[in-house]
Amino acid sequence: MAYHRIMRTLTYLLIFLFVCLMLALMPKAGSYVWDPRIIVPATAAMFTLLVWLVARFIDTDRTVLELTITASFILLFAPGASLFFARDESAILELGSQCIVPFFLTQYTRISRKNFKIAYALMLLMGIFCSFTHDGITLPLCLAFLLMAWQRRSEFFRLACWPMVAGWLIGTILQFATRGHLPDLRPDLVGLTNRTALVLGLLWDTKVFVLSLGLTLWFTTTHWGRRQLLFAFRRHRLITYSLVFALSIVPFAPLGIENAVTGVCFFAMLWAMILFKGIERRYLGARGMKNEE
Q1: pTM over cut 0.90
Q2: Rounded to 10 degrees, what is the CA torsion of 43, 103, 237, 68?
């Protein structure tokens, strides 16, 4: 146990040092606005924090390989990843914004079964802030939260997570209210077809959607893969529902085409990491499917 803890700590340290090295060696357009001795380690620390939060949320922090895959996926596929290496305040802001989401989702899953009667106001404000500041995932997550609330409707208001769901719903409503006009959801076959084709073309260019789709189809070809998909769905229902809703609203793109693409890419990245976790634990000696069940 202590050995694995030490190895995980060393892995996080190596991720931090690797990002520092990349930031120091990559050419930068223009001069530094901030002292590189400050902005480089600050950016690397924020990226390492993001990896830690995502790995905790989707349970990919058991082995060095899982952490490496998680860091690689975030580096290659996370929406806004190109800003990670800006080496100015935009990198810190983008990484800070990215860190808020897995932190919020982790708190939602961690406290959903505890009946806290304190800090409800803080949890409500956290939901409003996270929802209002993340256009791409606002609506899919809101629909997923509402679906899960309906599934647990007999006990929902006895759970500690209900203020977070209420806050996210309020933030989603504010997203639409502050845009000055509501999206046009009237049936328009030509418009829906054109938007769907455009978004699917953009998703194809991101590669992460194609990767997650290919992995899912490959998993369906084997008995073990189908069991693993069922296990992933049961354990990560929030991610599964959010990805389905993100894809479902693509033809309408109520918050804009760019936000529709961002939402699908974000949840597709998490889904692909979950499937890679299953592959790693089956074929490379980590805790296998039978132990997880």
Answers
A1: no
A2: 30
Spell out a b/e string for 211-242, using b for 16 or more CB atoms within 10 Å of the CB, else e.
bbbebbeebeeeeebeebbeebeeebebbbbb
CA distance 26 to 85: 9
* Residue 273 tokens, joined: 């990491």
Domain boundary assignment for the chain: 1-103, 112-182, 189-292
pLDDT one-digit tens code per residue, 163-205 = 888 999 998 888 888 776 555 556 566 667 777 787 777 777 7
Q: Which residues of 106-130 are buried (b: 16+ CB within 10 A; e: fewer)?
A: ebbeebbeeeeeeeeeebbebbbeb
- Distances in Å between the alpha carbon of 196 and those of 94, 191, 242, 244? 28, 8, 18, 15
CA distance 67 to 56: 10
- Model confidence pLDDT, tens digit, residues 76-123: 888 888 888 887 878 888 888 889 889 888 888 876 555 555 667 788
